[in-house]
Structure prediction request, 136 residues.
Amino acid sequence: MQSQKAQKIDLNTDYPCPCRRRGRLVPIVLTEAFGCNRCQQIFVVDENGYSIEQLSTNYPYKQAWRWTGNQWSKAYSGLRDSYLPLALGIILVLLVIWLPSALSLPLGSNIIPWAIIVAVLLAVLPALMVWLAYRR
Prediction:
């Protein structure tokens, strides 16, 4: 089993593209950068030489990878990996607060069905937003 320890990136070697498009990263002459021959992305080697960072991207967060000897691994997870737990926490809080308060209203009240609908919608909307953000 190969170790997950980051290896120093050799500027004279070509690597597989971390974007998973079956491309190859080839060194760009006279720079500390690589270009993918398939997806046309440019990757710059970090100052320490252990990670690469994607330059031209429309992704709002920086993407960086470390070379482990046989594959790329994410250098840092960033905010994207915490969206799902955050959305689940919001749903849980809404269900714990809104649902009991909606059910504790007097039975003759017309507000009960609307309060339950609002509570469920407020719980489902964050989950729907996360699903739309992560689907490909």
Observations:
- The chain has two domains: 15-74, 80-134.
- The longest helix spans residues 111-134.
- Residues 80-134 form one domain.
- The beta strands are 15-16, 24-27, 33-36, 42-45, 51-54, 64-67, 72-74.
